[in-house]
Specification:
- This protein is α+β, with helices and mostly antiparallel strands.
- An eight-stranded mixed sheet has the order 5-4-3-6-2-1-7-8.
- A hairpin with a 2-residue loop joins strand 19 (401-406) and strand 20 (409-414).
- Helix 7 crosses helix 8 (204-218), helix 14 (451-466) packs across helix 15 (493-504) and helix 15 packs antiparallel against helix 16 (513-525).
- The structure holds adenosine-5'-diphosphate and magnesium ion.
């Protein structure tokens, strides 16, 4: 074949492939345009995972009617017009590629009205070719409707995942943007139903509640840091160490409020948590780094998802330090630790490392660890597999801790955390191997579910039933709860299911749904702090704990027990 320049329609389709990979990338580009247009409200509607239809409606400044056709040309942008601006990009968009690329692989309709104009304008494009344009009444702002995505690119469409996976990606995206733009009210409608709404009142913590649910949100700590020399700042939230996930997807980073992916930033956060989390557990974080526009290259990756920093080390260090600082403040070390003593390793960062007797303590933490006292090797390598020591009950302290005597020292066992671990392990056994789990309620209880709770129930119904819940739909978002997991003693069954669903909600954000469900059921079923226990109850609990494969931490990663060595006590009392 001779060399020739491709016809424009074909060239546009090929170029579109770089920008528009899947429905979520369309949503990303359109939402970013709406943000750049100073919108205060952005509604995203998708049908069938976004393949059938994506609609993004905003109340931003709109597009002048005479510029509308230009907006759909390649490299047409209102956001930069000089090399200087390209070197310091302040908007999310700048390439002028999104609209033409999206239009090339879909049927696109745009209606837009500038707030001061009496009427709006509408334009329709069919696979990138203008099909209609004219005036039209509409509210101020811009609405873009994208239908039949990749209808003219069957190869691309074939590679899309199921519509629920594509939906999850859109949910993730919208909720991430709502975290970093708390002043914008985001709403996501999936197949006609509201799936997510952020309050848009400018309060970051309320956006956090909307995304992670009330329980996880309360365990998020506020992060603020500044490098006084460079003026770099980091702001956002990091999860308390009790809040962990099995992979890194729950760490979300923004640079100048642009969502980016960065291994460097994940590492910085993981460094800050070092010693606080179990092996293979990862923290939750949502952090925005503000740096001078000229110090970051955002024009580095086709979908603008990766950026390059001029001063990578400084960015790393400010993030790591800021996160570490809040964790230190949240995690004081008990008085008994006495790092000045010569046979204890010197502390690395004085009061930073946790008090667990086993889980995840690095050598040099400054705390006496079970392993270091009995010489069984590095703590974090051995932690998850080490059996619990045989313990003899001495008594109960503050109606919260079981005081016990064990090999070469005293153990304090957190009764709630220990029981949580026992129940969680029981729930995690294969259905075939465990006893029947259900406990019928004398009278069924009516529960009203929010949209996200309903979604969580539907998508996770099987494991909920497996764990012992029985429900019956009761019209319009209500369910009759007929049975609860047998492990629940007393307690309010309706509250338990609502909490469990809140924790399980947001499929996209909480991927290990079953694990989250089991952990929150275990948390509900576990004996509370403040409950008086008899000696036989304490003995039974410690025996059950000893029998679990992972006795040293509760399912959230908190320690179930702390250890005080006999040597330490002797020294404190001046016996040695
Ligand atoms: P870019 O965002 O890189 O400039 P796009 O192709 O995404 O390129 O958009 C082209 C232009 O269309 C933008 O520069 C902007 O002027 C205008 N535009 C797109 N979407 C909107 C919107 N929702 N509100 C106002 N203007 C918009
Ligand atoms: Mg854009």
């Amino acid at each position: 074949m001779p060399i020739k320049v491709l016809p424009p329609v074909l060239a546009a389709k090929i170029a579109a492939g770089e920008v528009v990979e899947r429905p979520a990338s369309v949503v990303k580009e359109l939402v970013e345009n709406s943000i750049d247009a100073s919108s205060s409200q952005i509604t995203v509607e998708i049908k069938a995972g976004g393949v059938e239809q994506i609609k993004v409606i905003d109340d931003g400044h709109g597009i002048p009617s005479e510029e509308l056709a230009v907006a759909f040309q390649r490299h047409a942008t209102s956001k930069i017009d000089s090399q200087e601006q390209l070197d310091a990009i302040a908007t999310l968009g700048f390439r002028g590629e999104a609209l033409p690329s999206i239009a090339a692989v879909s049927n696109t309709t745009i209606t837009t009205r500038q707030p001061l104009n009496p009427s709006g304008f509408r334009m329709e494009l069919h696979w990138g070719e203008g099909a209609f344009s004219g005036t039209q009444g509409c509210p101020p702002g811009t609405a873009i409707e994208v239908s039949d995505l990749f209808g003219n690119l069957p190869a691309r469409r074939k590679f899309l995942r199921s519509s629920s996976t594509e939906t999850t990606r859109v949910q993730e995206l919208v909720s991430r943007y709502s975290l970093v733009f708390p002043g914008i009210r985001f709403q996501l409608v999936v197949d006609g139903k509201i799936s997510f709404t952020s309050p848009g009142n400018g309060l970051p913590r309320e956006a956090l509640v909307a995304v992670y649910g009330p329980q996880a949100a309360t365990a998020m700590l506020e992060v603020r840091g500044e490098d006084t020399e460079t003026g770099y700042q980091v702001n956002g939230f990091a999860g308390a160490p009790i809040l962990t996930r099995a992979n890194r997807t729950y760490m979300t980073f923004f640079v100048n409020r642009r969502w980016v992916q960065s291994r460097m930033l994940s590492f910085a956060v993981e460094e800050a948590y070092m010693g606080l989390l179990q092996v293979k557990r990862y923290p939750l974080a949502a952090l925005n780094i503000s740096i001078p526009y000229g110090d970051v290259d955002v024009n580095y990756h086709p979908s603008k998802r990766e950026v390059r920093f001029q001063e990578e080390n400084r960015v790393f260090s400010i993030v790591q330090k800021a996160v570490r600082a809040v964790l230190v403040a949240d995690s004081p070390v008990p008085n008994l630790a006495s790092p000045s003593e010569s046979d204890y390793p010197k502390p690395v960062a004085s009061s930073f490392f946790p008090r667990s007797a086993f889980g995840g303590i690095r050598n040099g933490s400054g705390l006496p660890t079970y392993q270091s006292q009995i010489g069984s090797g590095p703590a974090d390598a051995a932690a998850p597999l080490q059996p619990a020591p045989p313990l003899k009950v001495v008594g109960q302290l503050k109606l919260t801790y079981i005081v016990a005597e064990g090999p070469a020292g005293m153990f304090l066992v957190d009764q709630h955390a220990a029981h949580e671990r026992v129940l969680f392990d029981r729930l995690s056994q294969k259905t075939s191997e465990r006893e029947p789990q259900s406990q019928p309620l004398l009278e069924p209880v009516l529960v009203d579910l929010s949209p996200s709770q309903r979604d969580a129930l539907k998508s996770n119904r099987e494991s909920l039933e497996d764990y012992g819940y029985e429900f019956e739909p009761f019209g319009d978002g209500s369910y009759l709860l007929r049975a609860v997991p047998a492990i629940f003693g007393e307690g309010d069954p309706a509250k338990s299911i609502l909490d469990v669903l809140d924790m399980t909600a947001f499929e996209g954000l909480v991927r290990q749904k079953e694990e989250v469900t089991a952990a929150s059921i275990a948390c509900h079923g576990a004996i509370r702090a403040g409950k008086s226990l008899t000696e036989p109850e304490m003995v039974a609990l410690l025996e059950q704990l000893e029998a679990t494969p992972n006795p040293h931490t509760c399912p959230h990663g908190r320690p179930t027990m702390v250890y005080f060595s006999s040597n330490h006590m002797e020294r404190e009392f001046g016996r040695r």
